[in-house]
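Narrative summary of target 7.
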Amino acid sequence: MLDVEAQEPPKGKWSTPPFDPRFPNQNQTRNCYQNFLDYHRCLKIRTRRGKSTQPCEYYYRVYHSLCPTSWVSRQRGRRARRGEGSAEAEPASRSLPFCFPGGELE
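Modeled conformation, tokenized:
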């Protein structure tokens, strides 16, 4: 299980995300996308069960650290236009792929 306390940096200190053996290559695009999905799935599940969403903050920090700011803001805008409420509080839809600059889909 995810040990959230062990992975939290000290207050006010943001470090580089830890190594993820699923993504050993230099290109971290898939890692960015997977953490984006994990964050929104975590929010969806924990909100439905009425539990604290604090463990989801780990995925939030990782995807905000790995993903370029333009991708994060683009997804936030898409979610708002689709009427999914708060851009950071609603889960991602599986029907729409994550689009990268230049229209490429991953």
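The mean pLDDT is 76.
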